[in-house]
Every structure is written in C-alpha cells, then in structure tokens.
Design goal:
The protein is of the alpha+beta class and 733 residues long. Helix content is 24%, strand content 26%. It folds into three domains: 189 residues, Aldehyde Oxidoreductase, domain 3 (Alpha-Beta Complex); 303 residues, 2-Layer Sandwich (Aldehyde Oxidoreductase, domain 4); 144 residues, Aldehyde oxidase/xanthine dehydrogenase, molybdopterin binding domain (Aldehyde Oxidoreductase, domain 4, 2-Layer Sandwich). A hairpin with a 6-residue loop joins strand 23 and strand 24. It starts with 18 loop residues before the first helix and ends with a helix. The structure holds dioxothiomolybdenum(VI) ion. This is Xanthine dehydrogenase YagR molybdenum-binding subunit.
C-alpha cells in the first residue's frame, strides 16, 4: 500500500487552518515571545557608507537607565566563521574589525531592561568615523567586477555568429531599481542560552540553516541549537540567510547569560536583511523576418556588497525559455558600498524575464508579428539546454486560455490605436518559464489512540499555507478527517526540512509527507502481519487503502479495520513512521522541470498627467497539481501585486553618500488596494510525473512576467518603450 493521491488537478479551497489563531491575535510570532528575565536590544548603525571607526565611547550609553551592556567590535570575542550555505556564504560579520563597508552596518548592540531604554541608549553611543568616499553606482568604473560569479553562465551554439547572420537584430538595455523586501512582520531574534544549549526564536524561512550557522559560529553541536518559528509575518526571501543582527543578539545573550530580544525597526529592515539588487541587462535578439529566433545574447549586471556573496543569476532563465539554436547568457556583479542584496521573490528570474519578455515584444512590433504568435513560433517543446523532455509543460494551453479569457484577439494591434476618453488603452503580454527545484525533506507522522494524526517537519509557513496543505495532504493520504490532523512545523528539532524559498518547500514537504504516509501505512500492516484477529493479516501494501480512519482492502472495502482498533488490540498509544523524499540523484534533478505561465495585461495611460493605471491582469499558470486552489490563488495574487509594485512603484533610493533615503512605508511605495485591478487567475495543466504528488513550484512564479507585460502594454498604448523600472510618472511625461 503506497500512499495514493487522488486524480485531481485542483485541491479543495480549504481555509487556512491557522487563520483563526492569526485573526484572534493568538498565533505566536517571534516578536511576541516573552521570557522571564528577558532584556531588550537595540542596534547602532553606521551613518556612513565607507571608512573606519576611529573611536567608540560606550560610556554615556552604559550609564543610561536600564542599560546592561553595550557590545562593539572592541569588547567582543572573535567568532568562528559560519559554514557556506548552498546559496552563497553567510553575510559578513559586522564586528570583525573597525571597517565600515556600508551604510547601516551594525557597529554596536545595546541591551537594556526595556526596548525603549535600549533604543534611547543606542543614541548615546558615541562613534567617530574616518570616512572614505564610498564606491557607489552600478556603472562606477572604480567598482570591482566579478564575472560569472557562480558559474551559472550558459552557452549553446554560437550566439555571436548567430547575431551576425540574423536578418533582424534587436539590441536593448534594461534597468531595474533596487527594491527592498518589506514583510509586515518586523524581523526578530530572541536568544536564550542555558549552559551550552541555545534556543532561538527567529524570523526565518529556514530554521535548519539558522541552526547549523549558529552552531558553527558559537562552537556548539548542532543538536544543542533549537530554532523556533511557528509563524512568520512574511519574508519574500529576506529570511533565507542568517543576518548579522541574529548573530549579534545570540552573542549578547551569551555574554550576559540572559535571554535577549531584538526587533528590527522598519528603517532597519532596509539595511539588515537584504534587498533586490539594482540591475542592468543587455539583451540582443537575432531573428529571421518570419520570427524565428536564431540567436539570443543576454548579459546581466547586478550590485553586491564589498565582501559579500549573493547567488542571483539574471540571465540564466533566458537559456531555458525559448527554442533557439544559439544562446549565450552571462552574469556580472559589481561590488559597491551598499548593504548586501539578497533574495526577493523569484530572484534573478523576475529581472531576467523583464528584459527578455520586453525585448521579445520589441522584436514582435519590429517584425509586425503578434507578440503572442512570436512566442508560439519559438516555443521550447523540449528543455532547450539539455534537449530532454520537460517533466510536463502546458504553456501552450496557458497562452490559449489566457488569450481567450483576456480577449487578446479582439484588440486593435495598432500602437496608440485605442482610446477611452483621455486615456490611451494598451494591451501587453508575457510568457513565463520558471525553473524550480526540490530539496530533500523529511517528516514523521504518528497516528494516536485519540484518533488524531500528528505530522512533523522543520518546515515553515510564511503565511502562504504550509500548515493548510500539509493538513489536507496528510488527511487525504491517511484517510482521516482534516480536523483530526495536527501539523507541527517551525521547529528545528523536528525532522529536517529545506527553506521555504525557491518555490521549493511545498513540493519538498508534500513529497516527504507522501513518503512518510506510505511508511506509516506499511507500519500498520507490519503490526498486524502475524495478528490472527486482523482481517488485514498478511496483506501486501498495494492491496490496502485508508478511508475514514479505517484500513481496508482496495477490492473489497468491507474487509478491514480502523487504525484505533489496531492500536488498541496491540496496546499501543500511537504508531509513528519517518519518511524522506530525495528527488535528486547526486544533486542532479531527475528530469528538467519548469512551471509556466502566461500573463495578459490591460493598462490605461493619461499622457498629460503621466498616469498609469493597470485595469486587469489575466494569469494562467501551469504548476502541476495544486493542493489547495484557494491558497494557491492567493499566492499568485499576492505575487502579482508584488509585480505591480516592481513595475510601477518600488524603488529603494540610495543617496550620493550611500544612505537609504526612503526607508519607511511613507516613502517606499508599495501597491495599495486602489492600485490593484481585477486579477484573474487560472491553473491548468496536469499533475507532474516527476513529483510523487504531481506538484511543481508555485511560490514565486506569480511575480514573474508582470512587469514586462505592463511595460509592453504601455508601449501598445503610447508607443513609448519604457526599459527602466519602476515606470513612474516622470518616465511617462
Ligand atoms: Mo523566495 S526569494 O526563494 O522567498
């Protein structure tokens, strides 16, 4: 009996199981944690972008009311280097020496009895700096440049020769402003040492990474570190590293031998947990007059901190998106005195698609070919890099269904052809190919005499539905009511799970639950294997299925017994099984897989006022099986709104001294309800054969393709090609 998954594409729209806890204010977030003897920390950050600390006087701060410690590079021990993470080394530890490498670098952590006392005392720490001119600007010739920093550049055929021979060549450069992840929940660390055991309540998308990093840095066994994060107030990728403030808070707790809590302020969120790097991308397309791509050359440049890493290939996705014989993709990183960038929803891919899908639109108009038709003529029937079949791909259906729902064929294709009063009306579209991956994941499941099942894994729920889909899937596989399934996640003591990032957690956790449920059902059969009183005695796994809390023969459901009867007869309070899903062989995915989407956008532009309004967006997604059509739709809607922000509003402004000039919600603009139009979301395709439950990655694809579809619609409306994001008023006037 293996765990059987039903024959559906779209799972039930179950409400989020943790929703009642959240709306009643009883879901504990890291910032809610209170412990006996807890003291509170505040950060002192560098007001300069580059230089050295020439003097620190902590005396006035130490004398302030309630202060118990002020820690700086001068009075703290050297810490061990953390191990590299799979996605780049951990951020530079700010107390390494007296050098300042960016604005907002932490130079002291002040601990006091209350948060207010700590914040007040932080302002009393006196720091003198010897300033040097910061290296700023993505085109700064003084900035060190890294070529192909992660070995992700690709080459197939001969792109240069292909461009030279092409009938038509398009050459365009695209720029995207830096943006900042702004989850509502302020990132928090609460650290508590008991002898050499550490408990950390941490805002993170990856408890196991926090555990291994802190264990290495503080020289204790990994098993001595427990990371707890039952709920997260959003992350968008910001929780995929162990940020410097986490290490400092844990250090303060160890130094003081007291639990210490640090909650970042909103402005500190702009300097402390990463941001989407500024990028410049050059795309060259070579094509025949009838719209066949013969060459693509894509070069991406992004910014990075002076002594930091950030795996964020911009151009790589271009090698996978279309059938084209000659493709070269390259990435470069420019080192600047800026807070280190990090991942922000669909990192790399979302920027790369803005460049590629905008360039394709330009090519389509140049050739006089419908933009959708141009994409179909270059459809990648197989994975372009390997030549292998995709695990599944319904992008053609996404295009067809999206075009029908949107009414694409009914538009007037002429530039500036459509008006509604003062508004110029435009229609644009984009295709999306999104490479996802599945990491190894473990789980354990118990069925208890009280009739409940307990599912455990060190996964996290960003607020997007991990608890809910784990509940649904376990209930389905175990043949139990959903109300009887309890899901425990957000705890590094549970079976190891990967990060909730890279659109990979739901697929990894679901595969682990599938494997574990199969093991648990086998464990029940093993228990009754020699049991004369069991109607299931001697039965093989594939003969048996679970329904309504009862195991029974597939071919004769009247033959069987309940979980509880088996447990009771064998004097067991519970039966537990562990399971693991490892989708890759030697780190290589077993088949090329991608999620796909088509987007269609209608905009209105008032040229006199420079106003841009998005009127509707149709998104059609092939992400394989969707376990919960409601949470999945919400995932796509939320990401689409982030895409609106990227396209029209979001921009982290670094001033000439390298300071973030708009580090508040008053000045860093994100979409509000009035900015968000009707969002039509459709899922189609089929359960994917690569994954045991049939799923593909879904978490990030919703942001990809929004910005180019909007920019393309702006072109159709106005005849103005905007190659820089965000598309603000001044770019439309
Ligand atoms: Mo996403 S940037 O992998 O949370």
């Amino acid at each position: 009996m293996t765990a059987v998954v039903g024959n559906y594409l779209l799972g039930d729209p179950v409400d989020r199981v943790e929703g009642p806890l959240k709306v009643t204010g009883t879901a504990p977030y890291p910032s809610d944690v209170a412990l006996p003897g807890l003291v509170h920390a505040a950060l002192v950050q560098s007001p300069i972008g580059a230089g050295t600390i020439s003097r620190i006087d902590t005396g006035p701060a130490e004398a302030a009311p309630g202060v118990v410690a002020v820690l700086t590079y001068q009075n703290t021990p050297e810490l061990a280097a953390p191990p590299p993470s799979p996605f780049g080394s951990p951020p530079r530890y700010p107390f390494t020496d007296n050098r300042i490498l960016h604005y907002g670098q932490h130079v002291a952590i002040v601990v006091a009895g209350t948060p207010e006392q700590a914040a007040t005392a932080a302002r009393l720490v006196e720091v003198d700096y010897a300033e040097t001119p910061p290296v700023l600007g993505i085109d700064n010739p003084r900035a060190p440049v890294l070529e192909n920093p992660y070995g992700t550049d690709t080459e197939r055929g001969d792109a240069a020769a292909g461009l030279a021979a092409a009938e038509v060549v398009l050459d365009a450069t695209f720029a995207i402003a830096p943006e900042t992840n702004n989850p509502l929940g302020l990132f928090t660390t609460v650290a508590c040492w008991e002898a050499d055991r550490l408990v950390v309540h941490e805002t993170t998308q990856w408890p196991m990474l926090v555990r291994s990093t802190l264990a290495a840095v503080f020289g204790v066994p990994e098993g001595n570190v427990r990371v707890l994060v039952p709920h997260i107030g959003g992350g968008f990728g910001a929780g995929l590293r162990v940020p410097p403030h986490t290490v400092l808070t844990v250090l303060a707790a160890r130094t003081l031998d007291r639990p210490v809590k640090l909650v970042l302020t909103r402005p500190q969120m702009f300097t402390s947990i990463g941001h989407r790097p500024e990028t410049v991308q050059r795309v060259r397309l070579g094509a025949t007059r009838d719209g066949r791509l013969v060459a693509i050359d894509h070069e991406g440049t992004s910014t990075i901190g002076i002594e930091e890493t950030n795996l964020e290939p911009l151009s790589r996705g271009t090698a996978l998106a279309y059938a084209c014989p000659n493709v070269a993709t390259r990435d470069r990183q420019v080192r600047l005195n800026i807070p280190n960038p990090g991942w922000m929803r669909a990192p790399g891919t979302v920027q790369g698609h803005f460049a590629l899908e905008s360039a394709l639109d330009e090519l389509a108009y140049e050739l006089g070919i419908d933009p959708l038709e141009l994409r179909l003529r270059n459809y990648a029937e197989v994975h372009p890099q390997s030549g292998l079949p995709w695990s599944s791909k319904a992008l053609r259906d996404c295009y067809r269904v999206g075009a029908e729902r949107f009414g694409w064929a009914g538009r007037n294709p002429g530039i500036r052809s459509t008006r509604d009063g003062n508004w110029l009306v435009g229609y644009g579209m984009a295709g999306v190919t999104f490479e996802w991956y599945q990491s190894p994941c473990r789980a354990s499941i118990s069925i208890r005499r009280d009739g409940t099942a307990q599912v455990r894994s060190a996964a996290t729920d960003l607020g997007t539905g991990t608890y809910t889909i784990a509940t649904q899937l376990a209930a389905e596989l175990l043949g139990l009511d959903r109300g009887r399934v309890r899901v425990a996640i957000g705890d590094s003591d549970l079976p190891p799970a990967p990060q909730s990032g890279g659109s990979g957690l739901a697929v990894a956790l679901s595969a682990a639950i599938h494997a574990t449920a199969g093991n648990l059902l086998r464990a029940f059969l093993t228990l009754v294997a020699g049991d004369d009183r069991s109607p299931l005695r001697g039965r093989e796994p594939d003969e048996v299925r679970a329904t309504d809390g009862r195991l029974h023969l597939v071919h004769d459901p009247s033959v069987g017994e309940t979980y509880l009867d088996i447990l009771a007869r064998h004097g067991r309070d519970e039966l537990t099984a562990d399971g693991e899903a490892t989708p890759q062989v030697d780190g290589v995915p077993m088949a090329p897989s991608g999620s796909f989407a088509a987007r269609f956008v209608e905009v209105r532009v008032d040229e006199e006022l420079g106003l841009l309004r998005v009127r509707r967006i149709v998104t059609v997604v092939d992400a394989g099986r969707v376990l919960n059509r409601k949470t999945a739709r919400s995932q796509i809607i939320g990401a689409t709104v982030m895409g609106l922000g990227m396209a029209m509003l979001e921009r982290t402004v670094f001033d000439p001294a390298g300071r973030v000039a708009n580090a508040t919600f008053g000045e860093y603009l994100i979409p509000v309800h009035a900015d968000v139009p009707e969002l039509d979301v459709v899922f189609l395709g089929a359960p994917d054969g690569l994954h045991p439950v049939g799923m593909k990655g879904l978490g990030e694809i919703g942001i990809v393709g929004v910005a180019p579809a909007i920019a393309n619609a702006v072109f159709h409306a106005t005849g103005r090609r905007i190659r820089s994001l965000p598309i603000t008023i001044e770019r439309l006037l």
